[in-house]
């Protein structure tokens, strides 16, 4: 008896209409609904109070907008297997531009059937349609599923649909019904200027696109790669050996395609499509155009080995795709007689391998900047993109047998020190306290006076005096006084204040 009761309750819950509500303008409205609720005449955007009046037994759930957006994005990633041009139609839909792709799946009908069945197996209720314009396809999905409209047949296909299928908003839909225009065909039969004058140009454009009269371009989530190669499997693969072998073969095909146009890859992405709908994408970048498949194999091997979240095949990958999203023309150079060229190639390859393991932003080179401000004199830039500039950079020459004028490395932020007094108003300190340790000054070199760039100081034109300091323990510091004693620094009340002292770096 207990088991039967649970089964009856579960069956009853499945048959009860369910809706998801979202707060809009201080009122709860329907954000999503199931087929049972739709058959009762409920629709998206309807106030919850009205829905309860029509159906007191409604099952109501609160919307989770963030989770819904993440799920929709995951579905969009999975749909990349059909076309690289996938756009979000938030909050519930996707646009897929399948121009030139349908024949790869046996035609439009076979593609549509494959997509709907695969998503249904993943637990999603899908309404899909194919039409010549994106607006017409979206209108079709609001009333039926599985419809394929030939070019030129958009107006006839949607003429019998209610005006709410256009998704123009509650106010316009109500206005059309009050005017006696209950179907899209009724609205289309009226003069366009009359519709524009009554409901606005935006609605007129929406109606024209739904009828197949022009179309607004979709905005794909990802830019179309320059080159794409992929491999589909009748039986999913799951072993590291098969994955590596597949990537190697795809790399050979990709390099051959680029070689015909004299190009090399700078940014590569490998996408792995699991049978349960999960998609994992891995990207690598290179400092110079890659023209050999062995280099691609090595970079992806380094990347896969270094993943903090290892590649999980689950029940297997049924498709692997390799794409080059950024390519450049390969410039032919004389390389046989120039030893420096080979050294540069080896250095670039090493940087690419390290970047594949720890990330390109963590491998940097330092470039000199034309400024006398110490913290701005060096710019840290990604090594992959600035290697040539770093090798050609000209740094200030150092005088032989002389100590360096500045530390090799500065603190990220100058650290304050306590100076009880200076030998003279503009002179160095006699002693100072840094990090709770007292340092007695025995040798001093300086000052080196630096005036700050006035356009970056928010009106505070401060002057720094830098000193090279050595204490009794032999430690050498680079310290500065921020401001002068002649009234360049002021307190909040406007009275003169003592300038501050800071340590900016340490000498070896």
Q: Could you characterize the architecture of this molecule?
A:
The protein is 32% helix and 27% strand. It is an alpha+beta fold. It has four domains: 17-63, MutS, DNA mismatch repair protein, domain I, CATH 3.40.1170; 66-210, no CATH class; 227-356, DNA polymerase, Y-family, little finger domain (Dna Ligase, domain 1), CATH 3.30.1490; 410-506. The strands form six sheets. Strands 14-19-18-17-16-15 form a six-stranded antiparallel sheet, with no helix packed on it. A four-stranded antiparallel sheet has the order 8-11-9-10, sandwiched between helices. It has a three-stranded mixed sheet with strand order 2-1-3. A hairpin with a 4-residue loop joins strand 17 and strand 18 (476-482). Helix 10 crosses helix 11, helix 12 (240-259) runs antiparallel to helix 13 and helix 13 (293-305) packs parallel to helix 14. The longest helix is centred in the middle third of the chain and has 20 residues, at 240-259. The chain is elongated. The termini are far apart. The model is unreliable at 1-12 (pLDDT under 50).
